[in-house]
Each structure stands twice: as structure tokens, then as C-alpha cells.
């Protein structure tokens, strides 16, 4: 049965490992996010791995030939606990895919659209408004958004980081 596992990659070689594993027919996932960095004296948005030097791989250890993974360029080996490869719940990988999909497409090019539509009910997860229900209003920038919170009998519009909200079912 296929499951998600975690691979440790050599420093700065996650992209190389992804490419070589894809050529071998393995399904991999490396969550990336957009951050601001100073490059050549200017602030620029760049895509960085969310977990540097780590890569998720979808594989069936009972049937797939995973011994070739150790000799794949860029791969150090499985992350192990008690001598066994660390299995990652599919729900964790699905959540990471959902939360990072706005940052890259198949070619790694940013297509940063909001995960939320105007009117979506959300919950604020961090900061002074943590735990409060809100309504998504509009994107403020590539990483921030405005939400509406009922406060003092009136809807108040506040700006929060888009990573600090979750869609309420």
C-alpha cells in the first residue's frame, strides 16, 4: 500500500533530488513558500522550500524498488524512527499541498492567487485575534489579506497574514 514518507536530501539539492526521482517514476512533493529576500541589494520574492533539505515521497515499500533511492543524486536517505522509514499521514501532505498550492505551479513558477474567495468563512489561528471567526474580504498583498470580524456590534476590517487563517467548514 502506497504511503507518504520523508526523505532527507543533501544540502541545497532538493530540486536536484526531485528531478532525479521524477525521472525514476516516483511521485514527490516539496512544499515551497514565497518569502522576501534581499538579492543584489533589492528586496525580491523568492520560492524557498518550507522544509529545507526534506522531500516527501509517495511509495509502496513492499512492492517498489526503493533501494535505488539511496544512490539517487541529492538524496541522503529516509528519515527513520526506530530503524523504520518515517511514515507521514496523507492528511498532513494534503494540508501542505492545499496551503502551498498558491505559490507554485508544475514548473515552479509563482501563480500566487488567494486560497480564499470573498465571503469565505475563516478562523484566525495566531495573534491577538486567535480563535475568532471572520469573513475573508480581499487580498492585501501577496502574503496578507483583509478579513471582517464582528466586534462591538459592527464589522471591523483587519489585515492579517494569509497563512494565519484557515477555512471553516
TrEMBL record:
UniProt entry keywords in alphabetical sequence: DNA-binding, Transcription, Transcription antitermination, Transcription regulation
Coiled-coil ranges per UniProt: none
Gene Ontology molecular function: any one: DNA binding
InterPro entries (alphabetical): NGN-like_dom, NGN_dom_sf, NusG-like, Transcription_antiterm_RfaH, Translation_prot_SH3-like_sf
An example Gene Ontology biological process: DNA-templated transcription elongation
CC terms in the record's Gene Ontology section: cytosol
Residues in NusG-like N-terminal domain copies: 1-100
Quaternary context: Interacts with both the nontemplate DNA and the RNA polymerase (RNAP).
Functional summary from the UniProt entry: Enhances distal genes transcription elongation in a specialized subset of operons that encode extracytoplasmic components.
Family indicated by similarity: Belongs to the RfaH family.
Protein name per the record: Transcription antitermination protein RfaH
Natural source organism: Aliidiomarina shirensis
Taxonomic lineage: Bacteria, Pseudomonadati, Pseudomonadota, Gammaproteobacteria, Alteromonadales
Amino acid at each position: 500500500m502506497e504511503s507518504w514518507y520523508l526523505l532527507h536530501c543533501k544540502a541545497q539539492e532538493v530540486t536536484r533530488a526531485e528531478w532525479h526521482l521524477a525521472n525514476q517514476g516516483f511521485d514527490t512533493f516539496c512544499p515551497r513558500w514565497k518569502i522576501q529576500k534581499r538579492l543584489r541589494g533589492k528586496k525580491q520574492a523568492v520560492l524557498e522550500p518550507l522544509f529545507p533539505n526534506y522531500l516527501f515521497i509517495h511509495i509502496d515499500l513492499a512492492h517498489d524498488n526503493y533501494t535505488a533511492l539511496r544512490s539517487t543524486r541529492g538524496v541522503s536517505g529516509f528519515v527513520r524512527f526506530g530503524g523504520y522509514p518515517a511514515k507521514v499521514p496523507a492528511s498532513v501532505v494534503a494540508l501542505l499541498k492545499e496551503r502551498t498550492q498558491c505559490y507554485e505551479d508544475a514548473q515552479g513558477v509563482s501563480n500566487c492567487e488567494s486560497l480564499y474567495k470573498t465571503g469565505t468563512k475563516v478562523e484566525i489561528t495566531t495573534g491577538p485575534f486567535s480563535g475568532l471567526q471572520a469573513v475573508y474580504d480581499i487580498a492585501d498583498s501577496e502574503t496578507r489579506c483583509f478579513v471582517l470580524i464582528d466586534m462591538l456590534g459592527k464589522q471591523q476590517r483587519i489585515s492579517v497574514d494569509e497563512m494565519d487563517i484557515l477555512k471553516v467548514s
